[in-house]
Amino acid sequence: GENVEQHPSTLSVQEGDSAVIKCTYSDSASNYFPWYKQELGKRPQLIIDIRSNVGEKKDQRIAVTLNKTAKHFSLHITETQPEDSAVYFCASQKGFKTIFGAGTRLFVKA
Amino acid sequence: GAGVSQSPRYKVTKRGQDVALRCDPISGHVSLYWYRQALGQGPEFLTYFNYEAQQDKSGLPNDRFSAERPEGSISTLTIQRTEQRDSAMYRCASSDSSNTGELFFGEGSRLTVL
Questions:
Q1: Which residue in A has a C-alpha nearest to residue B42's C-alpha?
Q2: Gap from A96 CA to chain B (nearest CA, Å)
Q3: pLDDT tens readout for residues A37-72
Q4: Between the N and C ends of chain B, which has fewer C-beta atoms within 10 Å?
Q5: Distance CA A65, CA A6 (A)
Protein backbone atom coordinates (compact mmCIF):
# COMPACT_ATOMS: atom_id res chain seq x y z
CA GLY A 1 0.00 0.00 0.00
CA GLU A 2 0.88 3.69 -0.08
CA ASN A 3 3.67 4.83 2.23
CA VAL A 4 4.60 8.41 3.06
CA GLU A 5 7.94 9.21 4.62
CA GLN A 6 8.57 12.59 6.24
CA HIS A 7 11.80 14.29 7.32
CA PRO A 8 12.99 15.66 9.62
CA SER A 9 11.04 14.44 12.63
CA THR A 10 12.08 17.53 14.59
CA LEU A 11 13.13 20.95 13.33
CA SER A 12 14.24 23.94 15.36
CA VAL A 13 14.73 27.35 13.74
CA GLN A 14 15.25 30.91 14.86
CA GLU A 15 12.38 33.32 14.39
CA GLY A 16 12.60 34.86 10.94
CA ASP A 17 14.48 31.94 9.41
CA SER A 18 12.99 29.54 6.87
CA ALA A 19 11.87 25.97 7.55
CA VAL A 20 11.69 23.14 5.03
CA ILE A 21 9.98 19.80 5.52
CA LYS A 22 10.33 17.03 2.95
CA CYS A 23 8.17 14.05 2.12
CA THR A 24 8.29 11.15 -0.30
CA TYR A 25 5.43 8.93 -1.39
CA SER A 26 5.41 5.49 -2.92
CA ASP A 27 2.28 5.25 -5.09
CA SER A 28 2.71 7.08 -8.39
CA ALA A 29 -1.08 7.17 -8.80
CA SER A 30 -1.45 9.54 -5.83
CA ASN A 31 -2.78 12.84 -7.10
CA TYR A 32 -3.41 15.12 -4.14
CA PHE A 33 -0.93 16.22 -1.50
CA PRO A 34 -2.24 18.17 1.51
CA TRP A 35 -0.32 19.52 4.46
CA TYR A 36 -1.88 19.68 7.91
CA LYS A 37 -0.81 21.65 10.97
CA GLN A 38 -1.56 20.31 14.43
CA GLU A 39 -1.06 22.56 17.42
CA LEU A 40 -0.63 21.02 20.84
CA GLY A 41 -3.85 19.39 21.98
CA LYS A 42 -5.73 20.46 18.87
CA ARG A 43 -7.04 18.72 15.77
CA PRO A 44 -5.05 18.62 12.50
CA GLN A 45 -6.06 21.41 10.13
CA LEU A 46 -5.30 21.87 6.46
CA ILE A 47 -2.89 24.71 5.72
CA ILE A 48 -2.09 24.18 2.04
CA ASP A 49 -2.45 21.53 -0.63
CA ILE A 50 -1.20 20.78 -4.11
CA ARG A 51 -2.58 18.64 -6.89
CA SER A 52 -0.55 16.44 -9.17
CA ASN A 53 -0.93 18.69 -12.20
CA VAL A 54 0.79 21.58 -10.42
CA GLY A 55 4.48 21.90 -9.55
CA GLU A 56 4.36 24.68 -7.01
CA LYS A 57 1.82 26.62 -4.96
CA LYS A 58 2.27 29.56 -2.64
CA ASP A 59 0.09 31.15 0.01
CA GLN A 60 1.68 34.07 1.82
CA ARG A 61 4.58 32.67 3.86
CA ILE A 62 4.04 29.04 2.98
CA ALA A 63 4.72 27.23 -0.28
CA VAL A 64 4.64 23.66 -1.46
CA THR A 65 6.54 22.05 -4.30
CA LEU A 66 5.89 18.73 -5.99
CA ASN A 67 8.25 16.61 -8.06
CA LYS A 68 6.13 13.84 -9.51
CA THR A 69 9.03 12.11 -11.20
CA ALA A 70 10.93 11.73 -7.98
CA LYS A 71 7.74 11.36 -5.89
CA HIS A 72 8.91 14.12 -3.58
CA PHE A 73 7.02 17.07 -2.16
CA SER A 74 8.07 19.76 0.27
CA LEU A 75 6.68 22.46 2.53
CA HIS A 76 8.53 25.75 2.81
CA ILE A 77 7.77 28.28 5.53
CA THR A 78 9.51 31.64 5.25
CA GLU A 79 9.92 34.32 7.93
CA THR A 80 8.94 31.88 10.64
CA GLN A 81 7.11 33.17 13.69
CA PRO A 82 6.62 31.61 17.15
CA GLU A 83 3.01 30.80 16.26
CA ASP A 84 4.29 28.53 13.48
CA SER A 85 5.46 26.14 16.23
CA ALA A 86 3.40 22.96 15.80
CA VAL A 87 3.50 19.49 14.29
CA TYR A 88 3.18 19.43 10.51
CA PHE A 89 1.93 16.37 8.62
CA CYS A 90 2.31 15.77 4.93
CA ALA A 91 -0.12 13.40 3.25
CA SER A 92 -0.84 11.83 -0.09
CA GLN A 93 -4.20 10.83 -1.46
CA LYS A 94 -5.30 8.40 -4.14
CA GLY A 95 -9.02 8.10 -4.60
CA PHE A 96 -10.64 8.49 -1.22
CA LYS A 97 -7.75 7.35 0.96
CA THR A 98 -5.39 9.86 2.56
CA ILE A 99 -2.17 8.50 4.04
CA PHE A 100 -0.20 10.66 6.45
CA GLY A 101 3.46 10.99 7.21
CA ALA A 102 4.73 10.62 10.77
CA GLY A 103 4.96 14.37 11.31
CA THR A 104 7.58 17.06 11.87
CA ARG A 105 7.66 18.92 15.15
CA LEU A 106 8.69 22.50 14.36
CA PHE A 107 10.04 24.76 17.10
CA VAL A 108 10.44 28.45 16.31
CA LYS A 109 12.65 30.18 18.86
CA ALA A 110 11.95 33.83 19.54
CA GLY B 1 -23.11 21.71 13.90
CA ALA B 2 -20.28 23.88 12.71
CA GLY B 3 -17.65 21.18 12.89
CA VAL B 4 -17.07 17.47 13.33
CA SER B 5 -18.19 16.43 16.79
CA GLN B 6 -16.89 13.37 18.61
CA SER B 7 -17.92 11.77 21.89
CA PRO B 8 -16.81 10.89 24.40
CA ARG B 9 -13.72 13.11 24.43
CA TYR B 10 -12.09 10.84 26.98
CA LYS B 11 -12.82 7.22 27.76
CA VAL B 12 -11.08 5.09 30.35
CA THR B 13 -12.04 1.45 30.36
CA LYS B 14 -10.83 -1.82 31.71
CA ARG B 15 -9.31 -4.45 29.51
CA GLY B 16 -11.95 -6.73 28.06
CA GLN B 17 -14.74 -4.15 28.00
CA ASP B 18 -16.42 -2.96 24.81
CA VAL B 19 -16.35 0.72 23.86
CA ALA B 20 -18.32 2.73 21.33
CA LEU B 21 -17.02 6.01 19.94
CA ARG B 22 -19.37 8.38 18.18
CA CYS B 23 -18.81 10.81 15.33
CA ASP B 24 -21.19 13.47 14.06
CA PRO B 25 -19.78 14.84 10.79
CA ILE B 26 -20.31 18.24 9.25
CA SER B 27 -23.82 18.43 7.86
CA GLY B 28 -23.93 17.41 4.22
CA HIS B 29 -20.53 15.77 4.15
CA VAL B 30 -20.89 12.47 2.32
CA SER B 31 -17.46 11.09 3.17
CA LEU B 32 -16.55 9.98 6.68
CA TYR B 33 -13.26 8.57 7.88
CA TRP B 34 -11.94 7.04 11.06
CA TYR B 35 -8.27 7.44 11.90
CA ARG B 36 -6.20 6.40 14.89
CA GLN B 37 -3.40 8.65 16.07
CA ALA B 38 -0.77 7.41 18.45
CA LEU B 39 1.14 9.99 20.46
CA GLY B 40 3.76 11.64 18.29
CA GLN B 41 2.56 9.94 15.13
CA GLY B 42 0.48 10.82 12.11
CA PRO B 43 -3.15 9.75 11.73
CA GLU B 44 -3.44 6.10 10.67
CA PHE B 45 -6.32 5.22 8.34
CA LEU B 46 -8.88 2.80 9.75
CA THR B 47 -12.02 2.92 7.59
CA TYR B 48 -14.01 5.02 5.13
CA PHE B 49 -17.72 5.56 4.47
CA ASN B 50 -19.36 7.08 1.43
CA TYR B 51 -22.84 7.95 2.68
CA GLU B 52 -23.87 4.80 4.58
CA ALA B 53 -21.67 2.42 2.59
CA GLN B 54 -18.45 1.29 4.21
CA GLN B 55 -16.22 1.27 1.16
CA ASP B 56 -12.92 0.47 2.80
CA LYS B 57 -12.18 -1.15 6.13
CA SER B 58 -8.69 -2.30 5.30
CA GLY B 59 -7.15 -0.25 8.13
CA LEU B 60 -9.13 -1.85 10.94
CA PRO B 61 -6.49 -3.73 12.97
CA ASN B 62 -8.52 -6.89 13.60
CA ASP B 63 -12.07 -8.19 13.89
CA ARG B 64 -12.56 -6.61 17.32
CA PHE B 65 -12.91 -3.30 15.50
CA SER B 66 -16.06 -2.43 13.56
CA ALA B 67 -17.78 0.71 12.34
CA GLU B 68 -21.15 1.69 11.01
CA ARG B 69 -22.92 4.70 9.58
CA PRO B 70 -26.47 3.41 9.15
CA GLU B 71 -28.16 6.59 7.95
CA GLY B 72 -25.26 8.19 6.19
CA SER B 73 -24.64 10.74 8.92
CA ILE B 74 -23.55 9.78 12.45
CA SER B 75 -20.99 6.99 12.69
CA THR B 76 -19.98 4.69 15.51
CA LEU B 77 -16.63 2.94 15.88
CA THR B 78 -16.89 -0.04 18.20
CA ILE B 79 -14.01 -1.86 19.81
CA GLN B 80 -14.87 -5.16 21.45
CA ARG B 81 -12.88 -6.84 24.21
CA THR B 82 -10.50 -3.91 24.47
CA GLU B 83 -6.79 -4.48 25.00
CA GLN B 84 -4.13 -2.11 26.33
CA ARG B 85 -2.65 -1.75 22.84
CA ASP B 86 -5.94 -0.17 21.72
CA SER B 87 -5.14 2.93 23.79
CA ALA B 88 -4.86 5.87 21.41
CA MET B 89 -6.60 8.97 20.08
CA TYR B 90 -9.37 8.01 17.68
CA ARG B 91 -10.18 10.77 15.21
CA CYS B 92 -13.10 11.09 12.88
CA ALA B 93 -12.91 13.26 9.77
CA SER B 94 -15.44 14.22 7.15
CA SER B 95 -15.22 15.63 3.66
CA ASP B 96 -17.68 16.92 1.11
CA SER B 97 -15.89 14.98 -1.61
CA SER B 98 -14.36 11.55 -1.85
CA ASN B 99 -11.62 12.76 -4.16
CA THR B 100 -8.93 15.32 -3.47
CA GLY B 101 -10.75 17.17 -0.76
CA GLU B 102 -9.88 18.66 2.61
CA LEU B 103 -10.45 16.46 5.62
CA PHE B 104 -12.15 18.18 8.56
CA PHE B 105 -11.10 16.44 11.74
CA GLY B 106 -12.96 16.19 15.00
CA GLU B 107 -11.35 16.82 18.38
CA GLY B 108 -10.93 13.08 18.83
CA SER B 109 -11.77 10.52 21.46
CA ARG B 110 -8.86 9.58 23.68
CA LEU B 111 -9.18 5.96 24.74
CA THR B 112 -7.22 4.55 27.65
CA VAL B 113 -7.45 0.84 28.35
CA LEU B 114 -6.24 -0.16 31.79
A1: A102
A2: 5
A3: 999 999 999 999 999 888 999 999 999 999 999 999
A4: N
A5: 14
